[in-house]
């Protein structure tokens, strides 16, 4: 049975595949943004933070000699960087997105400068702490949807495919970090999985967003018919697909 891969190898490849799929999930948003020349409801700040975190992950992967982590974050920097570039290209006002980009670039530059004044033995540990902190922030960001779901008593703001994909990504990254015995990798996924669990629980209470979307769309068509309104707006659907 020596030809069978060990558990770490299986989880490692699963992590690569799932992560690449999750990165690709932002492509429809990017393509739509470019075609429509509109940045409405596009999570630019999320793109920026993801690029920043991927840069930290790339640096950490190189420092600890982890080729898998390095590969994933090389691709991540390129993909998220492309999303950021497209947003700036399409945005009518360039000042605000460019200022945000410069702020994130300045933060990363300050991080690099700080590393140059540290003893060499502390560099890996410090980069790991930075990565741990910002990964945790990135994983907790989706928790703001929980507040919206509770306030509206609805799950229409939640994208079900992304929730499933994000949960699967959190599971494989947690397993990978655990098997590597690296808290920097597995710890941020604990709050991420907790957030996903709460969302699934709220879906159990309020119902699936797809059913609510269909119901809302049907109601909108009925109202338009009664009022002889010929103009159809899709703002609600756009927000749900954010």
From TrEMBL:
Any one GO CC term of the record: plasma membrane
Topology with respect to the bilayer: Multi-pass membrane protein
Chain segments annotated as transmembrane: 13-32, 44-63, 69-90, 97-118, 130-148, 160-179, 185-208
Location of this chain's protein in the cell: Cell membrane
Entry keyword annotation includes Transmembrane helix: yes
Keywords assigned by UniProt, alphabetized: Cell membrane, Membrane, Repeat, Sugar transport, Transmembrane, Transmembrane helix, Transport
Coiled coil: none
Signal peptide bounds: none
InterPro entries per record: SWEET, SWEET_rpt
Keyword Transmembrane helix listed: yes
Annotated Gene3D superfamilies: 1.20.1280.290
GO molecular function: sugar transmembrane transporter activity
Protein task: Mediates sugar transport across membranes.
Family designation: Belongs to the SWEET sugar transporter family.
Name recorded for this polypeptide: Sugar transporter SWEET
Annotated source species: Arion vulgaris
């Amino acid at each position: 049975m020596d030809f069978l891969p060990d558990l770490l190898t299986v989880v490692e490849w699963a992590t690569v595949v799932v992560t690449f799929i999750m990165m690709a999930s932002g492509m429809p948003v990017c393509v739509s943004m470019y075609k429509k020349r509109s940045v409405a409801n596009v999570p630019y700040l999320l793109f920026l933070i993801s690029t920043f975190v991927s840069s930290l992950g790339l640096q950490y992967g190189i420092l600890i000699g982890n080729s898998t982590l390095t590969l994933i974050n090389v691709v991540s920097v390129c993909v998220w960087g492309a999303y950021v570039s497209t947003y700036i290209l399409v945005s009518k006002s360039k000042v605000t997105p460019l200022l945000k980009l410069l702020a994130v670039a300045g933060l990363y530059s300050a991080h690099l400068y700080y590393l140059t004044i540290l003893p060499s033995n502390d560099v890996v540990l410090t980069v790991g702490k930075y990565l741990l902190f910002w990964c945790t922030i990135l994983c907790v960001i989706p928790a703001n949807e929980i507040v919206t779901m509770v306030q509206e008593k609805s799950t229409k703001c939640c994208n079900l495919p992304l929730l499933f994909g994000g949960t699967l990504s959190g599971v494989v990254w947690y397993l990978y970090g655990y098997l590597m015995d690296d808290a920097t990798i597995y710890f941020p996924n604990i709050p991420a999985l907790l957030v996903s669990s709460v969302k699934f629980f709220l879906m159990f209470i309020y119902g699936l967003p797809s059913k609510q979307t269909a119901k809302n769309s049907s109601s909108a068509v009925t109202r338009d018919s009664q009022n002889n309104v010929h103009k159809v707006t899709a703002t609600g659907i756009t927000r749900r697909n954010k």
